[in-house]
Amino acid sequence: MSAIPRTPPVQRLPAAYSLTPHLIYPHRLYLLHAIATVLAVVAMAPAMWTLQVPLEHWLTTLAFGLGWPHLARWRYRRSRNPNRAEMQHVLIDGLLAGMGLPLIAFNLPIGTALIAVTCFAAMFGGGPRLLAGNLLALMVGVLLGIPFYGLHWEPGLDWLSFLASLPLAWVAPMGLLRIGYDVTQGLHHRRNELELRGWHDGLSGLFNRTHWEDTVRAEFARCRRTGQAATLILADLDHFKQINDLYGHAEGDSVIRRFADLLRTNLRDIDVPGRYGGEEFGVLLPLTPLPEAMEVVRRLHRRLHEAPLSRHRTITASFGVAELTADIDSPETWIRQADLTLYRAKYDGRDRIAERSATPVAPSAPEGGSSHAPLRPALSPRDPAVLAQLLQGIDIADTPVAMYNPDDQLVMANDAYIRLHGIPPGVVRFADVIRHAHRLRQGVALDSDPETWLRDVQLQRRRAPRRLFPVTTLDGVRFQGIEVCFNDGWILTTLVAAAPAGLASPA
Questions:
Q1: What's the half-sphere exposure (Cβ side, CA atoms, 13 Å) at 83?
Q2: Residue 5: helix, strand or coil by DSSP?
Q3: Are residues 39 and 78 in the same domain?
Q4: Residues 411, 309 share a domain
């Protein structure tokens, strides 16, 4: 028969071993246990002397009183389940206290101190359940002690008994309370550490994305309640991947930390910077209208050139700025608007600042003087007949097409797109369209959960305003996706059916 593997004895590990923090608390209990048992023997001594108990009873009392704490500690350190062993020791304490009651002829002051201390220790160590077990152990101890010591009744209502019981009645409970206080303080400190780690990004030291977004939601609610101004900034370090590829991830981490330091030293105490993800950062500016926020961003932009983040090269950043205005209906829309202006800053060449206009840009052909090129005459909305034929041709080709405005709301979709995603009335946001289709198990086959997939899409849109990508639906149909982001956040999405393998394309 194979031997059962034995857990190595705890005492073979060094006292300061980081994986045995449970040794600290029982060690303090051991010291208190040893002191309490000595005080219990001292408390019992006057009653035993008055009763003239035999010498063997003195010897057994001294042996149990002085030897039991050390035996309990040895047993605890050898146990495979130290916590259970400690609970058993509390019950044995109650049993020995119960056996001592007949020995002192149920002396009232001393007996009360013994019972109170053991019950206090049980309640402290295991709650009501262990307290009930301790009371049972006390009664069993009394029944075991009567055959050995006899049944006598000597209340002992004298000053000597009272004085003898006081050290035990005070020292043991106060020692347990002190240990409990230290443990509570340690748990409070640990909880604060965990909260700090849960709120902050480990590399930059700024708030992480979850806590930063919670702060944005709280500020959105406060501004809507008070009517005060606030502005969001999203910043993205330009060509950050090249830093990691050319100079190593250690240099990339250093750049992240230095940019975080730049934010901390150039922002007010009420401003809230956070690491939004990767090389992207967010800044919440409470009580700050757009003109003042633009001054803050220009100062940050200027500091990047005056004090480079890396000794190898000047690292620039693109900034998107969005003031909270009346047309923004949710914190998510507010963040989305800042994200869209960041798209524009990167699309316009990086190392620049883009701000959101108070009203969304219309999709119609821009007037003279606009930085955007006009639409071709054949596709101009001034010729509705041509546009109608175009849309009819798209529908006949059964090509899913949709357009989203800068608020991420679906403003146009043909039947093929609606049918593909199963879009019901009332679902207008892109994120809601994807979540609804995922719940119905139709539409695009996601390679991760919807929230992660949506974050990846936002990142890809930021990096490439014009992109081609393969799409496979849950029923196996393959498309080639074509997506264009333009005019400060308008998005046109087209899904063209992929040609089957072996089918030649028309000349």
A1: 4
A2: coil
A3: yes
A4: no
Contacts 24+ apart (CB under 8 A), 260-266: 260/204, 260/205, 260/206, 262/300, 262/303, 262/304, 262/307, 262/309, 263/206, 263/300, 264/206, 266/296, 266/299, 266/300, 266/303
Burial class (CB in 10 A: 0-12, 13-18, 19+), 85: middle
Same domain, 33 and 178: yes
Could you list the pLDDT tens digit for every one of the 507 residues in the chain? 333 333 333 333 333 333 334 444 456 678 888 888 999 999 998 888 888 889 988 998 888 888 888 898 888 888 888 878 888 888 999 999 999 999 998 988 988 999 999 998 888 888 899 899 999 999 999 999 999 888 888 887 788 888 888 888 888 888 888 888 887 887 788 887 777 777 888 899 899 998 999 999 999 999 999 999 999 999 999 988 888 888 899 999 999 999 999 999 999 999 999 999 889 999 999 999 999 999 999 999 999 999 889 888 889 999 999 999 998 989 999 998 998 888 888 877 889 999 986 443 333 333 333 333 333 344 444 455 666 666 667 767 778 888 888 777 888 888 888 888 888 888 888 888 888 888 888 888 888 888 888 888 877 776 677 888 888 888 888 888 888 877 666 777 878 876 554 444 333
Number of domains in the chain: 3
In a domain, 506, yes or no: no
Element (H, E) at 231: strand 230-237
DSSP β-bridge partners for residue 286: 230
**85-91-92 Cα angle (round to 5):** 85
Q: Is 337 part of any domain? A: yes
Angle at 280 between CA 278 and CA 283, to 5 degrees: 135
Quick one: how many helices (H) and strands (E) in the chain? 14, 10
Task: Judge if 223 and 189 occupy the same domain.
Answer: no
For the chain, what is the radius of gyration of the CA atoms?
38
350 with 420, same domain: the answer is no
Q: What is the CATH number of the domain that holds 414?
A: 3.30.450.20
Same-domain pairing of 188 and 213? no
Task: Report yes or no on 151 lying in a domain.
Answer: yes
Task: Please say which residue of 144, 174, 197 terminates a domain.
Answer: 197
Phi first, then psi: what are they for 329, rounded to 5°? -100, -5
CATH code for position 252: 3.30.70.270
Cα angle, residue 140 at apex, residues 155 and 128 outer, rounded to 5°: 95
User: How distant, in Å, are the alpha carbons of 8, 31, 75 from that of 13?
Assistant: 9, 20, 16
For residues 224 and 90, membership in a common domain is answered with no
Domain coverage including residue 403: 378-497
DSSP assignments along 295-338, one per residue: HHHHHHHHHHHHS-S-SSS---EEEEEEE--TT--SHHHHHHHH
Q: Are residues 158 and 228 in the same domain?
A: no
